[in-house]
Design brief:
about 725 residues, 29 helices, 3 domains, disordered N terminus, alpha/beta, Amino acid/polyamine transporter I, Rossmann fold, about 10% strand, ten-stranded mixed sheet
């Protein structure tokens, strides 16, 4: 065995058209077309065929458009989805697709057996199943070329059987006298009849499965697929007219073999039925291993290297063993009717995904999307909607089950550490979609308070100081927020030295599951560096909404900090001014209980709650407290200080309103203290963090005093004007 790519040896007619049209002209055409017309009448049957053909034709056009845009790799639809949507999506659809194509071989063998037993009723059913399955496997094992050459014979037989049906003189000269234009649908409905017929028009991916072995897949897949869809559609429409013309509704409903009975030469039609089921089994068994081989080559599955190996003649025989085993297990079940609908669902999910890919690529205006067969966006949209519609019409329960299985496999592939290329293909879709969203957000410049999350900006002069704040920043940003680190390089610490250090610590944040980016700015001082970063990031996709600063240790830098806060306010970026206590309160330090946050609020019932929180600059303070409480799984003390005992009741009522309207997470304690602010801070419950609103011009003496009295880390918060704690 080797991993050499198979030779590209098949042309349009042999590799695409023949297997595709044989997959479409299957047993339903022979044994259920009359039943459809008997229920629906001529116009109803034509409408059912038209709806089914529209869905498959749109999907075929989408497939063809993709094929003309890129050189198709091995794996057919799997390769398309892998290139467009990445390994997880491709794998989540590819795994059930392989199982479906393997099980459908068993279903076609059962159909072949029914036709065989109609001729030789004394033959054991299980023996017929096993021998016909073995024959399918043997032909495919030898080579796909042999399978395709046999399909020429089958195509000839099917063609002759159709001619025998259409050109029987006794049938043409004696039309039915009970012609039905629109049926009564006895015991059924239009959509139930559609559900029975629709699988007949699927099978359009059979030729695409051979993409890795086509001489020119960019030319062969569109030509072979579309010609097969077109010719088979004409045949189905013509057969519907033939059924309505030659037979009464009662005949069509009671006699599934009406085409055999009214054919010019009945044996050729019987051979056509056998050939249709056998060729469908052969096409599926040839195609399924090639999808599995492609998945193995991408290391999406355990034993991927083994699945990807090929025989000296290029046949994926290891993958054939796996898919053949699945098919054999299906045979031993003896009745696959219970999962037939589920198999159809997986095909429809694949078709829908291909339509969505074309719709997205054409809508996003990607320069890489330059198909020589360009189609209107309504075509893939119609195909995608039609596939979803067909899924829920055929079987709503199995539609949900199939979708659930795809999602489970997707989650498994995301979570697993199975293989994967070092540089995985990542979809240009997601990048393009993100760019599209960013453009819209930038153009409209609208802030949605309900989607607020912490996008934190931290200016750094000394990377060691940032390491000390790591846990605080992780608690603030995770799980959905982001962190931007700006290194401020000056003449004392050049960018060449600072940048690698910033990158190292930035990666530690990213490894801790916080989305983090970093950059370094050359600046003459701290103030100009921070302002430059604020201004530059206003047009970023994740525009920062919180600037984290530490209270300067030296008085000389207080003015610089005030200037930065003023510029942040002007840029509408919130500020967290952090003052860490060097000696935490021994009553709370190292305790095993839940961590506690004291949130200080000034009561103001003279206006509505939104205006009151605006006046106190409390929106961001409340959101910050909620975020930290969730991270710590802690509790909140909501504290107010009032001058007199008469104000106590009103303050408690105000705090209760904040809890209700801001939906603060439990447990929350309301605490109202009477006295001066200094006295109240001294008597306040001990905490791990004090949170208080920050004025535009903060009083650093007050900040130092509060931190000293409370003996815990203090955070002073200034709103940006974009937040809304009531949202």
């Amino acid at each position: 065995m080797s991993q050499n790519l198979p030779a590209r040896t098949f042309g349009t007619f042999e590799g695409v058209f023949t297997p595709t049209i044989l997959a479409i002209l299957g047993v339903i055409m022979y044994l259920r077309m009359g039943w459809v017309v008997g229920n629906a009448g001529l116009l109803g049957a034509l409408a059912i065929i038209a709806v089914a053909v529209i869905i498959t034709a749109c999907t075929g056009l989408s497939l063809s458009s993709i094929a003309t845009n890129t050189r198709m790799e091995a794996g057919g639809p799997f390769a398309i989805i892998y290139r467009a949507l990445g390994r997880e999506v491709a794998g989540s659809i590819g795994v059930p697709l392989v199982f479906s194509q393997s099980l459908v071989v068993a279903m076609y063998v059962f159909g072949f057996r029914e036709g065989w037993l109609w001729i030789f009723p004394e033959h054991p059913a299980l023996l017929v199943d096993l021998l016909s399955f073995a024959f399918v496997c043997l032909i495919s094992w030898i080579s796909a070329g042999l399978a395709f050459r046999i399909q020429y014979v089958i195509l000839t037989v099917i063609g002759l059987s159709i001619l025998s049906i259409f050109f029987c003189p006794r049938t043409l000269l004696h039309p039915t006298s009970h012609f039905s234009l629109w049926g009564d649908f006895p015991g059924t409905s239009f959509w139930q009849v559609f559900a029975v017929f629709f699988p007949a028009t699927t099978g359009i991916m059979v030729g695409a499965n051979m993409s890795g072995e086509l001489t020119n897949p960019r030319k062969s897949i569109p030509a072979g697929t579309l010609w097969a869809i077109g010719i088979s559609s004409v045949i189905y429409f013509a057969l519907a007219i033939w059924c309505a013309y030659t037979s009464s509704p009662s005949e069509l409903l009671s006699n599934y073999t009406i085409m055999v009975d009214k054919a010019l030469w009945q044996p050729i039609v019987v051979l056509g039925i056998l050939g249709a089921t056998f060729s469908s089994a052969l096409s599926s068994y040839v195609g399924a291993p090639r999808i599995l081989q492609a998945m193995g080559a991408k290391k999406l599955l355990p034993l991927g290297d083994w699945f990807s190996k090929t025989a000296p003649n290029g046949e994926p025989r290891n993958a054939m063993v796996a898919t053949g085993t699945i098919g054999l297990l299906g045979l031993l079940v003896r009745d696959l009717n219970a999962i037939a609908s589920l198999v159809t669902m997986f095909f429809l999910i694949t078709y829908c995904t291909l339509n969505v890919i074309v719709l997205l690529e054409s809508s996003l205006g990607l320069l890489s999307f330059r198909p020589t067969l360009r189609i209107n966006r309504l075509i893939p949209l119609t195909g995608a909607v039609g596939c979803i519609f067909a899924m829920f019409i055929i079987n709503p329960a199995f539609s949900l089950i199939a979708t659930g299985l795809v999602l489970i496999i997707y989650v498994w592939l995301v979570a697993s550490s199975v293989g994967g290329e070092e540089n995985e293909i990542r979809s240009s879709f997601f990048e393009a979609i993100a760019a599209w969203i960013f453009v819209r957000m930038t153009v409209f410049d609208r802030d949605n308070p309900r989607t607020w999350k912490p996008n934190v900006l931290v200016p750094v002069e000394n990377p060691d100081e940032l390491a000390d704040k790591k846990q605080f920043l992780l608690d603030l940003g995770r799980p959905e927020g982001s962190l931007r680190i700006i290194g401020l390089a000056d003449e004392n610490l050049h960018a060449e030295v600072l940048s690698p250090k910033i990158a190292v610590i930035g990666k530690t944040f990213r490894d801790s599951k916080l989305f983090t980016t970093w950059s370094t700015i050359d600046c003459k001082d701290y103030f100009h560096g921070v302002v430059t970063g604020l201004q530059a990031l206003q047009s970023a996709f994740f525009r920062p909404n919180i600037l984290v600063l530490s209270v300067p240790d030296v008085i000389e830098r207080h003015k610089e900090c005030l200037e930065v806060i003023y510029e942040a306010r002007r840029a509408r970026v919130g500020v967290l001014l952090l003052k860490e206590h060097s000696q935490p309160d021994p009553a709370t330090a190292g305790s095993n209980g839940p961590e506690v946050i004291n949130l200080w609020v000034r009561p103001d019932s003279s206006v509505n709650m939104h205006q009151s929180l605006n006046r106190g600059a409390m929106h961001l303070a409340i959101l910050f407290t909620i975020q930290m409480t969730r991270a710590w799984q802690g509790r909140i003390n909501l504290i107010s200080a009032v001058r007199t005992a008469e104000e106590e009741a009103g303050a408690k009522e105000y705090l209760a309103r904040i809890i209700e309207e801001c939906r603060l997470p439990e447990p929350v304690s309301c605490v109202v203290l009477v006295g001066t602010l200094d006295e109240c801070m001294a008597r306040a419950p001990r905490s791990d963090m004090e949170v208080m609103g920050l004025q535009t011009k903060p009083d650093f003496e007050f900040i130092d005093k509060m931190t000293h009295i409370c003996r815990s880390t203090s955070v002073f918060v200034l709103d940006s004007g974009r937040e809304n704690a009531l949202a």
